[in-house]
Specification:
The complex is a heterodimer of chains A (about 260) and B (about 160). With about 260 residues, chain A is α+β, with helices and mostly antiparallel strands. Chain A contains twelve helices and 14 strands. In chain A, the strands form four sheets. In chain A, strands 4-5-10-6-7 form a five-stranded antiparallel beta sheet. In chain A, strands 11-12-13-14 form a four-stranded antiparallel beta sheet, with helices on both faces. Chain B is built from five helices and five strands; from the N terminus they run ββαβββαααα. In chain B, strands 2-1-5-3-4 form a five-stranded mixed beta sheet, sandwiched between helices. Chain B is α+β, with helices and mostly antiparallel strands and about 160 residues long. Classes of the chains: A alpha+beta (about 260), B alpha+beta (about 160). At the A-B interface, α2 and α6 of A face β4 and α3 of B. Bound molecules: flavin-adenine dinucleotide and FE2/S2 (inorganic) cluster (2 copies). The site of one FE2/S2 (inorganic) cluster has 10 residues of chain B, from loops.
Chain lengths: ~260, ~160
């Protein structure tokens, strides 16, 4: 790891100021992606700005409309929250199956979304529930947030502060985990929302995406059979030593069927 | 960037000068000589380096020493009451043949204790197996580790720790 200057601001204003002053500043949340990246010398920031001391970035609020999770809230906190489990059980369950126990004790929702790893779990929930991402500058709809491989709508120096998930009528997430890392080979989040069914896929493409054909089918008939015959094209999907694009395309249908069945 | 850092490790206040990039595990092993915490991988996956920071199990290879400024850290060396009396979880690993080479054991024990507390001493096999996903063992096949942890949970409850 190359060395850097470390800062631990206590307020958003100080964090933004430190980021602005730095030649090449990088935010640090749980560090579960950033620190391994630095260890491999894949990045060399001049300054690392740790968000851990900013209290307003942490916590979970639940009301009749949905769940708001602060950016620095850890996966383990979402997984263990009785309020989340009651309002959106699929979200608590998703958080409980991210990585492993120690990753969940450190990793945060803000870090996960800012990173937009193609195999991360939270992007499926954000897109599948039609969540809203709030930053220090604006709110961004889930549909406008994920732009590509490790690429989001966030601008240079923009900080995610929270994510708001509207409460669905029903929802479920099914992932086929990579047996070594537990990242999603393919994960599918389905939800019956106030604007109709949503189907979001992670792990299969460069970033999370929706499957309109499945949403249309579920709008007519909410059942596993309705999506069983719908295939996504393999063209453009991820291929690696763990699975070919064709295999992932196949898994999308299988996980979608299971998720619809689990949502009931 | 050299920084001074201070924290409580196994009940003692310690401080030192580290680079910002110094990992917590390096601080523990190289600055404090606490070599019970192991480094088994470079990819945050094996869990040999698990310690408790403010009571929560974390991978100390994926945490900067400066991130633990002011924290209470417990390592495997901080568990036993004395050289004669092991912590109930350590004793359970010994009794149940929960280790072979022992390389993964410090991390297993630290993860296990967090798991026991998190589940209020009530652990079944499935919970233990899910809870150990971040700890890899190349020797035992996990079976006796799971057995040790279930026994250790009961022993911890009985001992009130
Ligand atoms: C062994 C292992 C297994 C894992 N398995 C899974 C898995 O199964 N599923 C899964 O989804 N994830 C998995 N992860 C990733 C993990 O869950 C974290 O979500 C992820 O590392 C990012 O969160 P973080 O808080 O650690 O962010 P960091 O690593 O601290 O930061 C990641 C990036 O986000 C930026 N950033 C952080 N916070 C903000 C913010 N508030 N605003 C703007 N930018 C920000 C940082 O600058 C950095 O570029 C795994 C990680 C490991 C090490
Ligand atoms: S050494 Fe920390 S997870 Fe392997
Ligand atoms: S006992 Fe050898 S690695 Fe676990």
């Amino acid at each position: 790891m190359y060395d850097f200057a470390y800062h631990k601001p206590k307020s958003m204003a100080d964090a933004l100021a430190a980021l602005k002053k730095a030649a090449d500043g990088k935010l640090l949340a749980g560090g579960m992606t950033l620190i391994p990246t630095l260890k491999q010398r894949l990045a060399q920031p001049s300054d690392v700005i740790d968000l851990a001391a900013i209290g307003e970035l942490r916590g979970i609020k639940v009301d009749g409309n949905g769940v708001t999770v602060g950016a620095m809230t850890k996966h383990a906190e979402v997984a263990a929250s009785a309020d989340v489990a009651k309002a959106i059980p699929a979200l608590a369950k998703l958080a409980a199956n991210i990585g492993d126990g120690q990753v969940r004790n450190r990793g945060t929702i803000g870090g996960s979304l800012a990173n937009s790893d193609p195999a991360a779990d939270y992007p499926a929930a954000v897109l599948g529930l039609g969540a809203t991402i709030t930053t220090n500058e604006r709110t961004i709809a889930a549909d406008d947030f994920f732009k590509g491989l490790f690429e989001t709508a966030l601008k240079e120096g923009e900080i995610i502060t929270s994510v708001t998930f509207p409460k669905p009528a029903k929802a479920a997430y099914m992932k086929f985990p990579n047996p070594a890392s537990r990242y999603a080979m393919v994960g599918v989040f389905v939800a019956q929302t106030s604007s109709g069914p949503r189907v979001a896929v992670t792990g299969a493409g460069p970033c999370a995406f929706r499957v309109k054909a499945m949403e249309d089918a579920l709008a007519k008939n909410w059942s596993a059979d309705a999506v069983a015959g719908i295939k996504v094209p393999a063209n453009g999907l991820n291929g690696d030593i763990h699975g070919s694009p064709e295999y992932r395309a196949h898994l999308v249908t299988v996980m979608a069927k299971r998720a619809v069945a689990a949502a009931g | 960037m050299t920084m001074s850092v201070s924290m409580t490790v196994n009940g003692k206040t310690v401080s030192g000068n580290v680079e910002a990039r110094t990992l917590l595990v390096q601080f523990l092993r190289e600055h404090l000589g606490l070599t019970g915490t192991h480094v088994g991988c470079d990819t945050s996956q094996c869990g040999a380096c698990v310690v408790h920071v403010d009571g929560i199990s974390v991978k100390s290879c994926t945490l900067l020493a400066v991130q633990a400024e002011g924290a209470k850290v417990t390592t495997i060396e901080g568990l036993a009451k004395s050289a004669e009396e092991l912590h109930p979880m350590q004793e359970a690993f010994r009794e149940n043949h929960g280790l072979q080479c022992g390389f993964c054991t410090p991390g297993m024990v630290m993860s296990a204790i967090d798991l026991v507390k998190r589940h209020n001493y009530q652990l079944d096999e499935e919970t233990v197996r899910h809870g150990l996903e971040g700890n890899l063992c190349r020797c035992t096949g996990y079976h006796n580790i799971v057995k040790s942890i279930i026994a250790g949970a009961a022993a911890m409850k009985a001992a009130g720790v």
